[in-house]
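Data deposition worksheet. Section B asks for the primary sequence of the deposited chain exactly as it was used as input, without tags or linkers unless they were present during the calculation. Section C holds the resulting structure in token form. Section D is free text for depositor observations; keep each observation to a single sentence. Incomplete worksheets are returned to the depositor.
Section A, Depositor: J.P.
Section B:
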Amino acid sequence: MAKKTTQRKRASTALKQQSAAQGQPQPQQQQPGSRWISAFDSNDHSLALVRSGVHGNVVRIVDVQTGAVRSEYTVTQGTKIRSISWSRAHQGSQAAVVLGLQDGSVHLYSPARGSVIKTFEGSHQGAPVVDVLYINSQVFSLDDTGRMVQWDVATGVATQTLRTGVAGASRMLVSGDAKRVVVASHKLELWDLGSQRCVQTWPGHTSPVHSLLWAADETMLVSAAEGDRNVHVWDASPQATNAAYAVLALDCDAQYIDVSANGSILSIGADGALYAWHQVAVARRRTPTQGSAKDAFGYAPDGCLRMVAANEPDTTIHLQIARFSRVSGDEGKVLVVRGTTQRLLFENLALTDEHGHFVGSLVVERTPTENLVSAKPSAKDVAAHVAYSEADAQITTPAAEAVRASQRAADDSAVSPTLADRVRQLSVDPASSSSAAAATASASASATAATSASAFLAQVGTGKLSAGSLVRVLVQALHTADDKLLDQVLNNSSRTKVLRDTVLGLPVVYVLPLIQQLFLRFHAKPSRANELLPWIRTTLFTHSAYLTSLPNLVPQLSGFYQGIEARLESHQELLKLNGRLDLAYTQIRAKSHFEKERSRQEKDAQRQNTMRPINVYKEEEEDDQDDLGRETEPPTPVWQAEESTDDEGMGAESADEKDEEDQWSDESDEDSDAEAAGKQASENEPSGDEDDGSEDGSEDEDGDVDLEQYE
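Section C:
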């Protein structure tokens, strides 16, 4: 093992010295473990990429055509994502992303909904899930202890568990019929799910496998390992041996691999270059006349692609991911991904000649990522050691292509005179005049024409033209690529109605050139956004039906869309900050309002206590005669006055009742006295002289009987 490492270091040193002697660029080696955790969907429409975030790992779904971010999902509680895979989109359902987490759980994430729709957990017992696959509505997950679990997507229940016992398992493959499973660590094992037994074993690599793919209709395997400069091809047919079918050699460690439908293999090296082998993973068996097994080792790449900076040919632009195109019509092309996890750039390149064989060595010049919008593109995009046509390369997203196309259109139309030049040409040439008067008239006409042209431009910019005239001026400016005249037309953005009518009357053939010119000015001077955005918004809204009918609209507007996305990357964070500031400001205002209200209430209470009267006098109406004989009484407070008033009313009522009772009691007393006197008189009078006595008896003036005479 140590001997092999020493030989590799010597070979690498010799290769670097040879490259330096030939003047080739010296790429920087990627650090170990810098491989991206990513996966393409089945149609190459989207890329799922895992990147590090502030609160944990973030899954970002990126559109391959535009480079725009479709959705993002942040794993809660800072759990690390170890593996990722796509499900196939069925009729009536959207494709989903399967995530294997460090805590042993598996999440099914829907980019369309932007949330996790299913969670599978419990069977891995906390072991990290190092690989996940979605096959026939079943989810397969593998942890680092070699335990493979099969989950039912509908119910979320584990239907089968396979304990392979492969320590340090890193990758897994499942056949299309879900009957065979390949588990890889340093070695590879093929298991039958029905009988749950190992049916075949390959020695594998000296380090953990990081890439494992099917080839030749699942009759072959292709694998690559950490720190290994060889890509291995294995025969997975039932009658095959455990020897490697082919070994593909690189000049550096293999970081990423892919297999095409015809058996071709590509690999991204640690040096950032792309290596390709033509149809090496095909199901063919050797015969004794074709040589021994040693002929399968050490296949050199049939093609190599390097990407360098346009202004600095010695600087290598690293390719992160490469994949044979699955898009119909792009067979034979390779989709390469470069840039960073924050900003991805996708590009389709044709690496084969007319016979379908890989070109030996290619060097492609591209603008670095950080200067993609601001830097001027190079006139020569491709510099190859062999003949290479720029027409074979198709850039799908960079904004530099849109800038370059507009510049080429401006160069092609430079021979066409502008409106101002045509106005100046209306003047008569003084050399053709035969007299001084004609020369004077010609000079006067030239001056008048120039003045008229300047006045016309000023009239366009000051907003004195109607919508109909402005449409003709706009068409002339776009047709002749007159930047000054176009800028004067764009100065009418404040005239909303005129702007709308102008865009509405613009012929559809000039809609896309107008959008491209607006895009160029927007990126050249972002400070003109208030002037240009009304034109962009109105044009896209008014001519949306025409734009959607264009077959190649996405590549032509991808630069503009990518520029907008680049400027809106921090929009969500700014919105969050704005929300926090609004919350804090609202609390501060509420606290200040409450303090002011409390202070006002305290001042009002203090003012009421200060202005409260000591005594309150109540004036009553009385007769003058009563006032003469009544002595002046001291004033009575209000609260005492009210109480006394109530008491007086009650007292008066009780006095009247008492007088009435006394009157009745006096009368009853008189009656009782009279009855007692009459009874006594009857007792003292003799029985025989009742009549005489009654006659002789006398009464006083009051009618009362004089009783003294009986005494």
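Section D:
The chain has a mean pLDDT of 74.
The first strand starts at residue 38 and ends at 40.
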